[in-house]
Structure formats: structure tokens, C-alpha cells
Write a structure and sequence with these properties.
Structural class: mainly alpha
Strand content: 5-15%
Helix content: 25-40%
Order of helices and strands: HEHHEHEEHH
Distance between the termini: 10 Å
């Protein structure tokens, strides 16, 4: 079973990524004190699919849209990012150097509670 508390902390960080910016799975995991949990960040975002959490703003360490298959269609993630002004350097790869938002640089110190704003609770799959 996944760490539900960790999922909620992921969603709270992702809610704070500004439009026109992206964060990496690893940046989020590192901010939350679990540097090696980038994959778990992805699972948390998958669980939030269809909610107000802006999951489309999270990419892999190379800027690739690895989570695109979890959206309504394979192009939705890119469409949302482009509508926010995010530039791409190749198909499915954002200009990470221009749009990267790093939680450690932008949010209060790690461990500071971040309230979940857009959703109260998102049940894990199978619950």
C-alpha cells in the first residue's frame, strides 16, 4: 500500500507549481525528503488524475512528458503546457532550462506544512 500521507504532500507541492513552469519528479521527491522516491511521486500524480491538481506540470529529469499516457489523451499534457506558454525543444521535451521550478528554491523550508488547497482527499486506487 502506498504512503497516503506522502501522496498528499506531493499534491500540495504540485498545486504550487506556477502556470508556465514545470518541476521534475525528482525535485519534488527531494523537497519532500525522499530523494529516491521520484517514481512514487509519479504514482501519487497518477492517483490524482482527473482532479484540480496540475499534474501536467511535472516532467522527468530530462524534461520529457513521461506521464502523458495517464491523461485523457496522449496529447493533453503537451496541450496544457503549451497553453501556459511552456516552450518545447523537441517533441514531448520541454525547455527545462527556461521553465524549471525547483521546490527547494521556491517553497518554505522542507518540513513546513503545505495545506492541500484544491482537493481535500484523493482515494488511492483500490480503496
Amino acid at each position: 500500500m502506498a504512503d497516503h500521507s506522502f501522496y498528499q504532500r506531493v499534491w500540495a507541492v504540485v498545486e504550487r507549481i506556477p502556470a508556465g513552469c514545470v518541476a521534475t519528479y525528482g525535485d519534488i521527491a527531494e523537497y519532500l525528503g525522499r530523494r529516491s522516491a521520484a517514481r512514487t511521486v509519479g504514482w501519487a500524480l497518477n492517483a490524482a488524475a482527473g482532479t484540480a491538481v496540475p499534474c501536467h506540470r511535472v516532467v522527468n529529469r530530462n524534461g520529457a512528458l513521461t506521464g502523458k499516457r495517464f491523461f485523457e489523451t496522449p496529447t493533453v499534457m503537451e496541450e496544457r503546457l503549451r497553453s501556459e506558454g511552456v516552450r518545447f525543444v523537441e517533441d514531448d521535451i520541454v525547455a527545462l532550462g527556461d521553465h524549471r521550478w525547483v521546490p527547494l528554491d521556491e517553497l518554505p523550508p522542507p518540513g513546513t506544512p503545505l495545506p492541500l488547497e484544491s482537493v481535500e482527499d484523493i482515494p488511492e486506487r483500490g480503496e
